[in-house]
Amino acid sequence: MMTSSAPDHACRLCGTPQPTDYWRPPAAVDTGSRLDAWQQAPPINRYCGLCGTPTCGEDILDHLQQEGVSQGEARLYGASLVSPTPEVVAFMAGWDVAAKGAADQSLIPFDIWLNRAHTRMLVGQSILTPDQGEAIFSGLDEIERLYQAGRFELNPALEDVHTNIEKYLTDTLGIEAGLAMHTARSRNDQIVTDMRLWMRHRVMVLAKLSLELMQQLISVAGTHLDSVMAGYTHHQHATISTFGHHLAAYAEAIRRVVLRLNHWYDTFNYSPLGCVTGLSTTFPIDRHLTADLLGFEGPEPNSLDPIACRWEPEADLGHVLSILMTQLSNMAQTFILLGTQEFGVLKLHPRFCSGSSIMPQKVNPDALEVIKGKAADVTSRLSGLLALGRASLSGYNRDQQWSKYLIMEACLEAIPAVSIMARMVDTSCRPETTHSLLYRRIGVDTGRLRDMAGTG
C-alpha cells in the first residue's frame, strides 16, 4: 500500500507535490493500466517524480524567488516584460550554473527496490535464512531513510551504486548478511534491471505529460474552429485553413508519440534480474517472483539477450524521445514565426520570453528556442546509443555502460520540454491572444475566388 506524508513543496516546473518520504512498491503490482502505472515507480529524490526537473539547482531558484527580479535581471528580461518564473529561467539557462549530479544517484531508490525483491526471493527459496533476510531489510530501510534525508551520498571510490549499498550494509552497519545479498546475481543483471526500472518510470512520466500536452492542444484547437489563417506550402500562402486545424495536427503527432511509448512499455517491461552475467546461475532462483515484485510482466525469456543488448532499450527510448523533441521543435518554430511582427498571429506569453540588455522593445521567444536546442541535443544522443550497439561480441561489454549516461541526459532534457510546451500552448494560443489577430491577417474575397475557379 502506498504511504506518504503530506507534501512539503511542489515541483516548480509542473506543480506536482513532492513528498517528504517515499513509499515502497507493493509486493504485487497491477501493470494493466498504463495511465495509472506511472504512480507505481518510486519518486526520485534529486528530480521531480513527474517532470524530471532537477532539484540540484534549488539554491539558485530559492535566490531568484526570495530576491525577485533585480535591476540587472530587469535589463535581461526587459522593463516592460513580466519576468519568467524561476523554473522557466532554469529551463532556459540549461546547465550554465546548475550541476547535474552523479548518474547512479538517481538509481538509488530503484536499487533498494531491487535488493528488497531479490532478498525476499532468496529467503523464499531457502538460499538465505529468514534472519539474514531481516538483517538485510533492516539495513536497506536505514539506507532508504538516509537517502530520503539527502544524507546517503555515493562514494566514488566504490565505483557504482550497487557496491556503495552493499558496502554500507557490511562495513558501516555491520550486517554480515549484506554480502550474501549478492548471491545468484551479478552487477551485470543488476544494472540492466535498475535501468529498466528507471526507464520504465520515465516512460510513464513522458506518456502522462504527452497526453496532457495532446489534450491541451485539442482543447485549444476547439476554441479556434473559426480562426481563419493561411495554410502554407513551401513557406508560402497556399489555401485557407484555421489555427485550430494546425493545433489539431500537432495533437495527432503527439498521440503517435504516446503510442510509441506504450510500445516501449510492452516490449521491455520484462525483468532481466536473474540473468546474472548473461549465462544464468545454478542456484534455484525464482525469477517469476522477482519479476512480480518489481512490477514486470515476467522474466526475460533468454538470459543472454538483455545483457548483450543492454543498449537496445535505451536506443529504442532515445528514438521515441528524438521524434518527440523533433515534433516539439517544429511546433516551437511555427509558434516563433507566428509570434513575429511580420506574421502577427500569436502573442507569446512574456513569462516564456526574455528581453534584451540593450534593446528594451525586444520580446525574445527564448523558451521555444531552447526547445529547439534541446531537440538537437536529444537527437545527437540517439546517434551515440546506436553507435554503442555496434561491433559487440555476444555477451557483456563494458562500453555499453555509456548507454546509461546518454539516455539519462536525453530524458533530463526532454521531459521538462513537454511540460513547458503545454504551458506555452495554454498561455499563448488562447482566443483572447490570437483570435482578433487571425481575422485581421486574412481578408477573403469569396466572389473573386469563385470566378477564378470557374476559369480554371
From TrEMBL:
UniProt entry tagged with the keyword Amino-acid biosynthesis: yes
InterPro entries: Argininosuccinate_lyase, Fumarase/histidase_N, Fumarate_lyase_CS, Fumarate_lyase_fam, Fumarate_lyase_N, L-Aspartase-like
Any one GO biological process: L-arginine biosynthetic process via ornithine
This enzyme's EC code(s): 4.3.2.1
Pfam families recorded: Lyase_1 (PF00206)
Limits of the Fumarate lyase N-terminal domain: 127-378
Highest rank taxon of the organism: Bacteria
Catalytic activity: 2-(N(omega)-L-arginino)succinate = fumarate + L-arginine
Matching CDD domains: Argininosuccinate_lyase
SUPFAM superfamilies membership: L-aspartase-like
Keywords annotated in UniProt: Amino-acid biosynthesis, Arginine biosynthesis
Protein name stated in the entry: Argininosuccinate lyase
Originating organism: Candidatus Entotheonella gemina
